[in-house]
Amino acid sequence: MAGAALRAGLAYAALVFAAGFALGALRTLAIAPAAGEFAAVAIELPLILALAWLACGAVLRRIAVAPGAGSRLLMGAAALAALLAAEAALSVFAFGRGLADWAAALALPAGALGLAGQALFALFPWLRLRLGNHP
Question: 69-80, pLDDT tens digit by residue?
């Protein structure tokens, strides 16, 4: 069943990356100039996490991931790895920044807040199981 968990993780990451791309553009162009980068991330984070929760449920309804904790954690780990890889690729290829610059930005307050949100995103498949809200 690892294959299903990996497929689900990739699908989950793709959905959330697409939503994050749209919200990130709004955050960067409209909110951050007025409120600052950290405040903009703090405003965006609950929205993207709500969308991630819904996306996680949608993926779990379509892909039969085993209901065990291991399968759900694998799905979340695969999703997190795919999401971080996509963000790094976007940073390098679309914005011309190096990987070191991308990684360094994660250590800044706004980046750390976003990274904490991504850790929660990765736990959603497991949390849905623990809360009895599965898919």
Answer: 999 999 999 999
